[in-house]
Amino acid sequence: MIKAKKSLGQNFLIDKKILEKITSIENIQDKTVLEVGPGTGNLTSCILKKKPRKFFIVEKDSNLVINLQKKFHKNLKIINDDILNVNEKNLSTHKLIVFGNLPYNISTEILCKWILNLDKEKFWFESLILMFQKEVADRIIADVNTSNYGRLSILAKWKLNISKICDINRSSFWPKPKIESTLLIFKPKKKFFKINKATNIELITRYFFNHRRKMIKKPFNQLFNGNDEIKRKLRLNLDLRPQNLNLDTYYNLAKEYENLTS
């Protein structure tokens, strides 16, 4: 019997209705598909029934890989590695549709890696259909002036349109996790704010949300030396708190920082 490893954040999805719902979100027939963290292969089986053109799975756990190889033989390509080490752009010349019941302990790290490594114009995926701990998903989709709004919301929404599909009950998994999960779909935006280095958004939001309950005056002065021209240009009220600034303000701040440091 396969045992879930807490160290890898493993909780295997077993609910057949949810599995079918996930694989019906996008038409994947004759498409190139990537699944991250297939576990025991429940979602993998459902994906194969939809007849993708090519199918890659990335699984870190070597014991699970042995089981997956026995189960699926030559129907797909198995990559036994940590997804954080994989260059997804090299998997296929076709854009990927990505499915992932992401390990809770590194889900934000995976998402941030994908966002920060996106090319300026060219996306390597058609869509990302990903499952997160509900608390993390709430942060990803949060709007300005809400308590969940923060670095993750701003970074995720820069180049991607995000929609919530559904919440998923704990009983849909084995072993049953202590928290609820949420399924999200991410699709590339046709138009987005042009910033040369994604790391500048990461830096700006890190400074501003380091003390999210305090006014933005201190981080602004740290990064821009109290530059009055930038303050006037962006119509910044330095008495506001980080959660009060909308997405475009943060993207403009990243651009202004880029201009100052280039």
Explained architecture:
This protein has a seven-stranded mixed beta sheet. A two-stranded antiparallel ribbon has the order 1-8. The protein has helices at residues 16-23, 42-49, 62-72, 107-116, 134-141, 151-159, 198-209, 217-224, 228-233, 247-261; strands spanning 12-13, 32-36, 54-58, 77-79, 96-101, 125-133, 160-168, 173-174, 181-188. It has two domains: 6-188, Vaccinia Virus protein VP39 (Rossmann fold, 3-Layer(aba) Sandwich), CATH 3.40.50; 198-261, rRNA adenine dimethylase, C-terminal domain (Helicase, Ruva Protein, domain 3), CATH 1.10.8.100. The protein is α/β, with parallel strands linked by helices.
Summarize the structure.
This protein has helices spanning 16-23, 42-49, 62-72, 107-116, 134-141, 151-159, 198-209, 217-224, 228-233, 247-261; strands at 12-13, 32-36, 54-58, 77-79, 96-101, 125-133, 160-168, 173-174, 181-188.
**Which blocks of ≥5 consecutive residues have pLDDT under 50?**
4-9
CATH fold description of the largest domain? Rossmann fold
CATH architecture call of the largest domain: 3-Layer(aba) Sandwich
Instruction: Please trace the helix and strand order, writing H or E for each element.
Output: EHEHEHEEHEHHEEEHHHH
What is the percent of helical residues?
A: 25-40%
The best one-word shape is elongated
Q: By CATH's scheme, which homologous superfamily of the largest domain applies?
A: Vaccinia Virus protein VP39
Query: Which structural class do you get from the secondary structure elements?
Result: alpha/beta
Strand order, sheet with most strands:
4-3-2-5-6-9-7
Number of domains: 2
Query: Mean of the pLDDT scores?
Result: 93
Alpha-carbon distance between the two ends:
56 Å
How many helices? The count is 10
Q: Biggest β-sheet: count, sense, barrel?
A: 7 strands, mixed
So what's the CATH class of the largest domain? Alpha Beta
Relative strand content: 15-25%
C-alpha Rg (nearest Å) = 20 Å
How many strand elements?
Answer: 9
